[in-house]
Amino acid sequence: MFDYVKDTEFLSRMRNLIVQNASLPIDLDYNLEIVRCEDFEDCRTIKESARKTFNKVLQEYSLGDCEDSTSSLTTGKIHFVNCNPTEFSMDVCIVCRDTEEDLYNARMSWK
Description:
Distance between the termini: 35 Å
Number of strands: 7
Mean pLDDT: 77
Structural class: alpha+beta
Strand content: 25-35%
Oligomer: single chain
Shape: globular
Helix content: 10-25%
Number of helices: 2
């Protein structure tokens, strides 16, 4: 059963509406939209650049490297020290637009 997270201090640190399965960790999903690139067909290089940059930011906060799956980059479990101790992780999916309206995940060429 999923419940809305009601801790206002915790929610103020996250911009989206968050649901949680009982007391389990929260999974935050984000899309990183690539809007300009020299070679959109070189998905492997795009993903590697995003992974290295994401890891650099995570390391600044001593959070370790992200996991690299076929469809997204995923952090380990994180929790705030000074408020709600609920663990959460972030999944970042790299996408680009193939038309004015449609986003697609370029994962077919990542691995």
